[in-house]
Predict the 3D structure of the following.
Amino acid sequence: MMEQVPLPRREPQSRERERVLFLCTHNAARSQIAEAFLRRYGGERFEALSAGLAPGEVHPLTRRVLEELGIETSGLKAKGLETIMGRVGIKYAIVVCEEAEAACPRIFPFAVQTLRWPFEDPARSRGSEDAQLLKFREVRDKIEDRVRSWLTDIARVAGTE
């Protein structure tokens, strides 16, 4: 009788993470915050990216309000849309400001789905640094709630809750 040799075990193929792009005008606050929260709460399923139509610098208060929650900010950098568009496939393009929303039909024909989550721009807040910081915290908290809610909805639809 021939000895049976066991077949090598096939490891399950790792599923590629779906890419989510957060788009804003300057990639200085809202899109950076949304990207950070998606990495924190959905990083095992999604690859979070952000970009701006006219990128500037990451606002110092963006860094501060993320660091308050223990989110590392040393790698944050404002990026232009040209660094992403046409180079990688995007499952979800999420527009977090109204200025960028007007340009989206022209910019995102390649995204599987475009979502609109307009948030107030905390970088436009005026007043004392304390008043500006309060506005950044308010917008940060709204973005965190929206990202978490969206992840719950996605899990429910996918049946992976």
